[in-house]
Fold each of these.
Amino acid sequence: MDPQKSTSNDENVSLRKFNTDLHIHTCLSPCSDWEMSPKKIVAKSIDQQLDIIAICDHNSAENVQAAIGLGEKLGLCVLPGMEISSREEVHILGLFRAVEQARAMQEFVYAHLPGENKVEVFGHQVIVNEKDEVCGEVSRLLIGASRLSLQDIVVKIHKLGGLSIASHVDRPSFGIIGQLGFIPPDLALDGLEVSYRVPLNEVREKIPGTMSFPCISSSDAHFLDDIGKVKTVFTLAAPTFEEIHLALKGKDGRRIET
């Protein structure tokens, strides 16, 4: 048997390991590099031998369709997502099965996102197509906090069939533990993300309050060279949203490798 493969007794399906980076920003995020176009991100992800990525721009999903289209052509699974900033200034990743769900989440966030972007202060917020052509800019203040509470965000993500993961919980800024001092027990998170600074096998001992949650590592890439800098290896049957969901729950042999 291939050492990278195993068999799930429950479903009698072949499982194997998949490399993932589930938090990547495009040039839509004002703090991201101009080189972070969907085309270049997909090419770099393949070069880094990633199987699954997620596009998670700040408070918007305008560039996910281009990345998904390119991924489908080149054999890379691209999940639509967003990194949403709550009124508590906590960042939450929303990962979705389909573009339509991400767009519905975007509409919800836009309705509660105050302010206009100041290009000279925060930078451009560029919408790009599959050919690296600029299609427009977003005028909303994507870098800012929404008026939505953490509960509002997590509940809406779940209503849309998505997964909610607290971003970079090891960081003092914009991480849920750094901002609040704890993880609210009634907040139905599907998982926690840590940065490259904390190896997955050391999360439990280094970060209090993480014992009850599955944890992943992501690059939070804002520059091409950061893509795949840190990754999570999942054991799955296929590179899909549904399989990631099973792995976060540790069901049917699907799991996070540490």
Amino acid sequence: MKGIYFIIFTLIGICAHSQIFEGEYGNRPARMPEKLPLDTSYIECIYSYNVYDPVIDENEESYQILEIGKNKSKFASYGYYRIDSIIRNDYPNSLTLAQYGNLSIANKPKPGSVIKDLKSGSLESIGRIFMDTYIYEEPFPQMQWKLGEETQEICGYRCNKATTTFRGRNWTAWYCDIPVSNGPWKFGNLPGLILKVEDDSREHVFNAVSIRNSNNLIFLYKRNYVKTTREKFDKALSDYKLNPGNFVAGSPVLLKNKNGKPVPNNRMFFNPIEKE
């Protein structure tokens, strides 16, 4: 990652390495947040998620997991899912700060999730901006899909094509015959589970890599979430990503030059999935 993003989190990483991975501090128990149960999953789908930023000509790939229950579903980082599974299986009593730090480095979790309430028809989006975690609620988007005749095989499933326009992007989805009207991120409202979806510029691409039955707890960590609206969150995230120096002005981790002045602002990797 370039610019101020790299600077800030490199310095945080240095601090974490010196305080967590070394000495007595690293042996202290990690205090995990309380889990708030949402539902129990019966199917899970793992997606690769590729984002391209044409301004700086860079690509980012991460893995996300969609956990689907009878009443709710959760789309979030597969890294956090793996960390929780490892802690549950390998550290049933407790783990140290150093051990948790090593798990985070190995699994590269990314903040953010989408919780769909399948009964009420609403969803909650959770995202982080610098040091704060935000949450907002909105109705489940009723995307108007145009069903096509083309087919494609994904993860061993025969999928049908559908297209729609949603918040500034034209999308093509491929859905299978698993009778679940759900998909990655906020996508849904099709006759089957969406296994692949991409915008026409291929700047955002979700592609299923694994589908499996499950019987796992779907949960949300109890945190001090800042309640907001989608419009306010998107504006704040854009301000932060495009002008991070102003957003974190005064932060103790903001790098300064030899004259004590902050390093000039630098645009971060950013290409919002919603344009409007």
Amino acid sequence: MALSRKPVAGLRDNNATTATADISVPGSLRRILTGADVVIHAASYVGSEPRLAHAVNEAGTGNVIEQCREAGVPRLIYVSTCSVYGSGPHRGIRESEAGYHPASAASASRAVAEQLVLGYGGEIVRPSLVFGAGDRWLVPGLLKLMKVAGGWPGDGSALLSIIDVAALGRLISGLALTDPQPGRAFHAAYPEPVRVSFLVESVARILGEDCPTFLGDNERAGQALRAAGFSAHQIDLVTKDHWYSSGDLWRISGLEPETFGGSLGEFSSAYEPSGGADPR
């Protein structure tokens, strides 16, 4: 069963049934969760409003846990984010090697949600940058950043962990179908990081725009980005290394990264006119 706060349109799996509920409303999930073996909790607020971050990510996750407990659901998997670690550089770190240092209200509230889930005996999946169908953040964000800065802030050498939304879904479902891993957290990313210069050059090529100039440490670009509302943390995430060891989740889920074509090919094909979401 797929649960959404709004009606789900165009669900591709015809075998799925859908229900409407809101995790921020206590008691709204109980009848839906009864009889479930595994609940995958992938609802999060990712904006900058602290009140909403608390209501959805903290209180909402608390509601999910309480209603899982009341319905007798034995297993809960929460889709979180590597942003709970805060700003980098992060280079190939494992799940147990970094503590919580969130740099935004949303990430801080998701770190709290993680602790609630782990306290229930649940499992955590932490993607970093997710691309593909339905993308409203990664490619649009890269494009906006380039336009505001008049190029790319930095030299383009940063290495980033990325994953296609379809591969992420397969990893999570693979985890759900295997033996429980209570109290564990997993990174969800392609094993090999991608250089940010490849990402931004691909975006420019697909949209028919000039390849951006790599500006290095340019104070004028930094001022323009701050004036446009980009936080230091948001800039840091795509201009410094942020890549994570992800082998455990691939192994436990029983999947091979090669099945999905590898990160470079998948990123390019996801945004071609015939594939994936329109990043504009």
